[in-house]
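Sat 14:20. Reprocessing the chain from the morning session after the first attempt stalled halfway. Input below, unchanged.
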Amino acid sequence: MQVQHLKNYWLRPENILIMVLVLIKLVIHFMLSANYGYFRDEFLYMNLGERLFEGSLDMPLLAPTVMTLTRWLLGDSLLAIRFFPVMAGVTIIFLTVLMVRELGGKFFAQLLAGICVLGAPVFLGVNSSFSYDSFDQLFWTWSLLMLVKIFKNNSPRHWLYFGLTAGLGLLTKQSMLFLGFALALALMLTPQRKQFQQKWIWLGAAVALLFFIPYLIMQWRLDWPSLGYWKYYTDSKTYPVSPIEFLLFQIIPLNPLALPVWLSGLGWSLFSKSGKAVRPLGLIYVLLFFIFMLLKAKFYFLAPVYPFLFAAGAVAFEQFSERGWWLTIRKVYVGLIVVGAIIMAPFAMPLLPVETFIKYSSLTGGDAGVKQERHEISALPQFFADRFGWEEMADVVARVYHQLPAEEQKKACILTGNYGEAGAIKFFGEKNGYALPPVISGHGQYFYWGFGNCTGEVIISIGISERYLKQAFQEVISAGLFQCQYCMPYENNQPVFVCRRPVAPLAEMWPHFKHLD
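Finished this time. C-alpha cells:
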C-alpha cells in the first residue's frame, strides 16, 4: 500500500511538472551548453579551494569549499565543476513551485512560475559557470520561502529555518546582509512588526550570525580587505548604470515577456487583500531595488527576489484568469514566454557556435543590451569572451619558460597582471604537464597570498606593461606574444617578458604590485 501511495503521489500532475522542468534544466546545461571554455573566475575558485583557510579578499568559505569537494568527487572538467551550480538552479525551480503552493496556487500557477524561472536568462547565465552567485541565489530563494511560510501560515518557529538558510547565504556572499536589512525595515512598515515580539526571530538571527562569524574573524585577521575591495568594486569596476538603465536591466535578463508576471506579483503582494500576509516580501523588493540602484550594483544582485515575484504573480494570474476566454489567453501567454526564453537563452549561456552567436547577437548590439563592467568589449560580450584564450596563454608562457637556461628555470617565477591570467596559467600548466614554476600576482586575492619562495631574480611576466616592469627590473626582454581572437581586448596581443636583475628585493617591491583593477 505504501509503495502504491508513493507511486500515486509522484504521478500527480503538479509533481510530474516539477520533474519535467528539472529535466529540461539539466538537458540545457549538461547537453547543450558545453561550448567555449573555462570562465575567468572559475580558476580563482579553484585556487581559493586549495587555500581554504588562508583567508579571502571578498568572499566567505562556502563556494571555495564546494569547488574543492567538486574537484575531489567529480574532477575538474567543465561539466564537473558546473554540476553543483546547475543543481542550485534546479533547486531554485523546485523552491519556486513550493512557494506557489504555499501561496495557494494550483497547477497553472506552478507551471507559469516554473517556466518563468527556468527560462530567465539571469538564472541560465549564472548557472552556466561556477560562481558563488548560483549558491547566493539558492539561499536567498530558500530564505524567501521560509518567510512565506512564516507570514502565510503564522509559523514563527520557521524563523529558525530562515536563520539556517540566511546563515548559509552569509557563508556564501555578503549580499545576504542586504536581505536582512530590507527584511527588518519591511517588518517595521507592516503589521508583521509583531514578529519582533517573538523569541524565534531573535533565535533565527543568532543562528544566521553563527555562520557569519568565521568570515568576520578572517577579515579581522587580514585587516578588513573587503571594505576596500567593495568600495573599489562600486566606484570603479561596475558599469555606472543610470536609474533607467537599472530598471531596463531588471526587465531584459528576466525575459521581457515575463515582465507582466513579476509586476503582477509585486502588485499582488503590495496591494491585494489576498497578498496582505506576504506584504513584507513585496516591500523587500522595493527597498532592495532602490538600495542597489543607488549603490550602482550589478543588475543580478536583485535576481534572487524574482522567484518570489514570479510565484506571487503566477498566483495572481491564475486567480484572475480561471474563467472564459482567459483560459485560452493564458495558455497562449505561456507559449510566448517560452518563445521569449528561447530567443534570449543564447545571450545567457554558450549554446551557439561562436560565429553563429556573433551573427545572432549583432541584432542587439552584441550583449542583449546589458552591460556589467566598464571594460571595452569586442565581438563577444565579456561573460563569453572571458572563456577564451586561457589554455593558449599558458602554452605561450610555457614555451618562454622552457627556452630559459636550466639554471634560470630553477630560479624563475611567473608574474601576471590579473587573477584570471594567474589562475589559468597555473591550472593549464598542471593539467598539460608543463612543469611551470610558481605563479604569483599582485591582483586582488593573489596579493594577499604573497610571492612564496620567489626571489625575483628571474621573472616571466604577462599582463603587466613593459614600462612598469622596467621600473622594477634592470633587464626586461620581450620573449613571446599571446594573441587570441575572441578573448577580451585587454587580454589580446599581450607580450611575454623575461625580467632579470631586480632593482630591490621582491619583498620590498611586492606592495607596489598590489592593485584591484
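The longest helix spans residues 199-221.
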